Amino acid sequence: MTQFSRFALAAALGMAGFAAHALPVASVGAGSAATAQVLDASLFSTNFVATVTNSTTQPHVEVTRSGLQTAYDFYTFGTSGGSVTIDFDSINQTDMEVGLWNAAGLLLAANDDYSYDGSFILDAAILNFNVAAGDYFIGVCRFSCSFGNNFAVSGSALGSNGAYVMNVSANQNQVPEPGTMGLMGLALAGLGVAARRSKVR
User: Fold this and answer.
1) Rounded distance, CA 18 to CA 43, Å?
2) In this structure, which topology does domain 22-175 adopt according to CATH?
3) Is residue 153 a contact partner of residue 109, using CB atoms and an 8 Å limit?
4) How far apart (Å, rounded) are the C-alpha atoms in residues 111 and 198?
5) How far apart, in whole angstroms, are the C-alpha atoms of residue 37 and residue 31?
6) Sheet holding 134-142: strands in order across?
7) Cα gap 168→71, rounded to integer Å
8) pLDDT tens-place values along the chain, 201 residues long
9) Residue 144: is the preceding peptide bond cis (ω within 30°)?
């Protein structure tokens, strides 16, 4: 194996493993479903997080909101199907509420005042909710608010004091990013050239 092919293979494997240790995502405070912040597959990871159940086996992404001037926050993500969990792990004196819609705008679930340990605090969670493969939307508002079909949210706005940490767990399609695919192709080409050279000798 040539020096080049060794380097290309190491780079490709390093890039492929990067998504397994994704960093928390900062909220941009998307104010509607049309401008929802995309939580794409590259942001999900399976690294250990104490406040996320099954964090080493189910892909999850952590969203941190430090305070923005928006009425409501919207996020969208795709899943290959299975269990979806949305859990607020940290809040800043704000009673959060959360809703989940499918891509057609049908409200599937909504929750207020519940956490993973079952305590009724100023928290919200949608736990182990089974969905089919497809795209979904999350809406976040502040008590007292309500959710409806067609991505409707009404009631209290979040405002600049609406800080929270939200974890979204969902099975992701493990499709490599284009850059990762390119590096893998480069590595395989390098290995092929090295193999041909060794046969010629």
Assistant:
1) 10
2) Jelly Rolls (2.60.120)
3) no
4) 63
5) 9
6) 37-38, 73-79, 134-142, 96-102, 107-112
7) 21
8) 555 444 444 444 443 443 445 678 999 989 999 999 999 999 999 999 888 888 999 999 999 998 888 999 999 999 999 999 999 876 665 678 999 999 999 999 999 866 555 555 557 889 899 999 999 999 999 888 999 999 999 999 888 878 888 999 999 875 444 443 444 444 445 545 455 555 555
9) yes
Assigned token pair, 165: 């940490």
Domain spans, the chain = 22-175
C-beta of residue 68 within 8 angstroms of C-beta of residue 160 = yes
CA–CA separation, 16 and 4 (whole Å): 18
CA-to-CA distance for 37 and 166, rounded, in angstroms? 13
> What's the token pair of residue 183?
């590096």
Instruction: Tell me the residue ranges of DSSP E strands in 132-189.
Output: 134-142, 145-148, 152-155, 164-170
Amino acid at 24: P
List Cβ neighbours of 81 (8 Å cut-off, separation of 6 or more). Answer: 131, 132, 133, 134, 171
